[in-house]
Write a structure and sequence with these properties.
- By secondary structure, the chain is an alpha/beta fold.
- The chain has a single domain, classed as Alpha-Beta Horseshoe (Leucine-rich repeat, LRR (right-handed beta-alpha superhelix)).
- It contains 9 helices and 10 strands.
- The protein has a 10-stranded parallel beta sheet with strand order 1-2-3-4-5-6-7-8-9-10, covered by helices on one side.
- Helix 2 packs parallel to helix 3 and helix 7 packs parallel to helix 8.
- It is globular, with a radius of gyration of 20 Å.
């Protein structure tokens, strides 16, 4: 698999370099025809400038990348731009432009939109945010992704963009919504207990190999519901890492014989039991 990452650093952007030019150069390069994985990092001060130009240029030159199967929009570290500051845009035009795409990863939720989310071959959708808006959740719920096998959503907190509730997530776990889905990640959430209780006995578990509820604020309350579920026993992997469960609850999981990850136990640092997901700002 051939992979290329394009990024415009702060100094490069100040010197006049632009992501549009980098994409155009790549489109006429010898490796363009065989490129299978493209990573777009900082497109130039992403805390102020949206990814709209990235989308426009990739659509414009999509014919130059016939082998593209994986696309990552917004891969950048905190020293370039905090996740909660990354300004995205409507990324849905990318899907019809790349009919062979199998994996789409997005980092950053500000101004993100996935309108008319339809694709016959997409197998993997990953969205990494410190706060994912309910509008995007509704767009995913309304999507037509018949071959989707992995859905991984970093939900985050309300201070950084999560304005939804459990009601905005339940359409994603309705029977038949994603018939090929084997990996479900509803993670990095401040309502992890609510999610755990809702998913614990949901019929979608019968088709999953992996349930990922990691990186959030899971406590004994949500863990108890999961432990009581018969459907959980059919999973090949259950990821609960980075959690706020008690030592007693962790011990119960370790004795359960289930394929569960309960590593990275967190503790609240005050008497008011403030708990935070792993990724926020």
């Amino acid at each position: 698999m051939s992979e290329v990452k394009l990024a415009i650093g702060y100094d490069e952007f100040e010197a006049g370099q632009r992501i549009a030019e980098a994409i155009e150069r790549l489109s006429v390069s010898p490796e363009a025809a065989s490129l299978s994985s493209l990573i777009i990092g900082d497109w130039g001060q992403a805390y102020e400038n949206s990814s709209e130009e990235v989308v426009e240029e990739l659509v414009k030159y999509s014919g130059s990348f016939p082998a593209l199967r994986k696309l990552f929009i917004g891969e950048m570290g905190y020293e370039e731009c905090e996740i909660s500051w990354i300004t995205q845009s409507d990324l849905s035009p990318l899907l019809p432009a790349f009919p062979g795409l199998q994996s789409l990863t997005i980092q950053g939720g500000n101004d993100l939109s996935l309108k008319n989310l339809e694709h016959d071959k997409l197998e993997e959708l990953i969205i990494i945010t410190g706060g994912l808006g309910k509008g995007v959740l509704a767009e995913i719920a309304a999507s037509k992704l018949p071959n989707l096998r992995k859905l991984e959503l970093y939900l985050g907190v309300d201070n950084y963009g999560f304005d939804g509730s459990l009601a905005d997530l339940t359409p994603l776990i309705e029977p038949g919504k994603f018939p090929q889905l084997t990996y479900l990640g509803l993670k990095n959430s401040e309502i992890q207990d609510e999610i755990a209780k809702a998913v614990a006995d949901a019929p979608i578990l019968d088709q999953l190999d992996t349930l990922d509820l990691s990186l959030g604020t899971l406590s004994d309350e949500g863990a108890e519901a999961l432990l009581a579920s018969e459907r959980i026993k059919g999973l090949k992997a259950l990821n609960l890492s980075h959690h706020f469960m008690s030592e007693e609850m962790v011990a119960r999981w370790q004795k359960s014989g289930l394929p569960v990850d309960v590593s990275d136990r967190q503790t609240s640092d005050d008497d008011e039991d403030w708990r935070y997901p792993s990724i926020t700002e």
